[in-house]
Amino acid sequence: MADIEAPPPGTLNWRLSAHPITLVTFLSFRASSLLVYLFLGLLFTKNFVLIFIITILLLAADFYYLKNIAGRRLVGLRWWNEVNPTTGDSHWVFESAPQPNEPGGKLVNATDKRFFWLALYCQPALWVALAVVAIVSFHFIWLTLVVIALVLTITNTLAFSRCDKFSQASGLLGNGLYSASLARNVGGALVSRMFNRS
């Protein structure tokens, strides 16, 4: 009987995920808005309003799930926006899970990480291609939906990219002294704070 080799870590196989339910839900939300946009009008209805509403609801669910659940569970990253009530200034706040060399830190699953970043960067690229198709085919009414999709997906992509960059910087800065890292981009300058979580 032949030995069955285990796939190497980082292989794009959802069964190797440390959080398979989170991963499958994340990928389902990422794909569903695109599939509804592409195929609902071809297969079921030509009603623009219905397709628009369903696609927007799926994009909103994807935005929320990615920002608050999938990012934290799959790659240990989270971001949010804070507004100073007195000045009205807006600040992006980036949070990362403890690094493996920090107390309480653990290594991010390679499969989760590959799926996350691949899906994060592919979806905006696909929406850009759909924007080009809408422009070339003179379907400008569909362009409104595509622009909304681009705003939501690019916002998450940029935020998680910055969050990853700042988590790597604060991980080096913290040098294992704290259990979590928080980086804040204030007025273009990076200010890092470290805090303990119990």
Automatic annotation (TrEMBL):
Keyword Transmembrane helix: yes
Keywords for the protein's UniProt record, in alphabetical order: Golgi apparatus, Membrane, Transmembrane, Transmembrane helix
Stored InterPro entries: TVP23-like
Role: Golgi membrane protein involved in vesicular trafficking.
Gene expressing this chain: TVP23_2
Residue ranges crossing the lipid bilayer per the database entry: 21-42, 48-66, 115-135, 141-160
Family affiliation: Belongs to the TVP23 family.
Biological process (GO), any one: protein secretion
A GO cellular component annotation in the UniProt record: Golgi membrane
Name of the molecule in the record: Golgi apparatus membrane protein TVP23
Membrane topology: Multi-pass membrane protein
Locations listed in the record: Golgi apparatus membrane
PANTHER family: GOLGI APPARATUS MEMBRANE PROTEIN TVP23 (PTHR13019:SF7)
